[in-house]
């Protein structure tokens, strides 16, 4: 199996608490904002230039995945991520757009 | 002075991180959802029946106030709270509505 042991919550198991907690971190919001630009596309995890250590990045990917914000796919030695836009928009209408817009306003 | 030493961040100092962190807690979201029903009205802090200790409640009020989600007013021995709807809608368009809607979907 290509997607190995990366577990993802089902759409009905998405909860506002973990999603908001995941989004409270600036680096994780930055990743979500980048993914939200082309929500149909997968991003290579290594391509997000977060100013943190490798172990911190790994932690951030896990928080995003376990909250249900992203699908992660392990392709051998490359890890890809995609925003779960459809699931999120279904479960939390307007939330991702509002969060992405919030940070745009800050800059 | 009626409003004693309760400090509130200015509208330009509101940041997405603390706001989302404050909203990640279920009890605090419940308070925000109640205040959002009548955003022009003050709520008596004691009237929110949170299932937590008095010291936890006090902590929750402080987190909400310091993140800029509510205005708190100390009227002698009563403490009032009001949603900073206008400031929040200005700074984070659609966010509060999305968060309140998210929890409604859960129920």
Annotate the secondary structure layout:
The structure is a homodimer of 107-residue chains.
Chain A: H1 16-23, H2 26-37, E1 43-44, H3 54-67, E2 70-75, E3 78-83, H4 85-91, H5 95-106
Antiparallel strand pairs in A: 1-3, 2-3
Q: Could you walk me through the main structural features you see in this protein, from its secondary elements to its overall organization?
A:
The structure is a homodimer of 107-residue chains. Helix content of chain A is 50%, strand content 13%. Chain A has a single domain (10-106), classed as Arc Repressor Mutant, subunit A. In chain A, helix 1 (16-23) packs antiparallel against helix 3 (54-67) and helix 2 crosses helix 5. In chain A, strand 2 (70-75) and strand 3 form a beta hairpin. Chain A has five helices and three strands; from the N terminus they run ααβαββαα. Chain A is α+β, with helices and mostly antiparallel strands and 107 residues long. Chain A has helices spanning 16-23, 26-37, 54-67, 85-91, 95-106; strands at 43-44, 70-75, 78-83. In chain A, strands 1-3-2 form a three-stranded antiparallel beta sheet. Chain A binds chain B through residues 15-21, 23-26, 29, 91-95, 97-99, 101-103, 105-106, and chain B through 15-21, 23-26, 29, 91-95, 97-99, 101-103, 105-106.
Low-confidence stretches of chain A: none
Helix/sheet category of chain A: alpha+beta
Give the C-alpha Rg of chain A.
13 Å
User: How many strands, which pairing sense, and closed or not: the largest β-sheet of chain A?
Assistant: 3 strands, antiparallel
Portion in beta strands of chain A: 5-15%
Distance between the termini of chain A: 42 Å
Our count of helices of chain A gives 5
Oligomer: homodimer
CATH class of chain A: Mainly Alpha
Helix content of chain A: 40-55%
Please tell me what the overall shape of chain A is: globular
Query: What is the largest interface, and how many residues per chain?
Result: A-B, 25 and 25 residues
- The CATH architecture of chain A can be named as Orthogonal Bundle
Mean pLDDT of chain A: 91
Q: Count of DSSP E strands of chain A?
A: 3
Instruction: Please name the CATH topology of chain A.
Output: Arc Repressor Mutant, subunit A
